[in-house]
Amino acid sequence: MRISKDEEIAELPATTARTLARWYRIPHVIGVAAEVLGITDAEAMSALHALAAAGYLERSGATTDGEDFWVTTTQGNALAQASFSRPITRGTADKYVNEIVDRAGQYNADPTKLLTVNRLYVFGSYLDPGRTHVGDVDVAIDMLRRNDDDWPSQAREYVIRSGKSFESFYEELHWPTTELVRHLRARRPAISITNDEMGSLIKDFRLIYDVSADPTAIQPSPSAGKHVM
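Structure (tokenized):
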């Protein structure tokens, strides 16, 4: 997804909307938006409601005090990864796709990881052979958990082993996913990674990586559970 800094999204400046989407990939309460943007809780509530009405956020449970958690939708995840940079050439896009496939193989060969990259797909403008320049390299990831038992405990232990420290349980819970996505993107702003379902939400796509065809990968157990962002 590519946006302009000058445009508005859900009646918010594009930079503000993207900032909120990036924070709310992990469920947070309204106070986080207020703190991040330096605004009042009432103003933060208005911003989150605007993003929700436009399809970028949704409610996701509540605290013991009844305060709503908010989290990005599929559309919101795309916004979180949106780029303000210029389109890239076809040659650069091909290079990025090849690099993503290589990094998926590297990740799947690492026995210390908690997840498996099951499949990777490309979709969007990259699939148009007539385009000499494309926007983002849009990639959809299908992930599996190598061990589905007590995932929260596994994630917390993994955070400790990684030497990381987070303020919230949700950040700990999502660190294995965040780390994997960062590994695949490798700080390339033109690479957008989502967890969209191919064939249901997106009709036109191409498979670029399948763990079952990777001889260097640690193959997942037949009972491996699906993992979502």
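The chain is about 40% helix and 20% strand. The longest helix spans residues 90-108.
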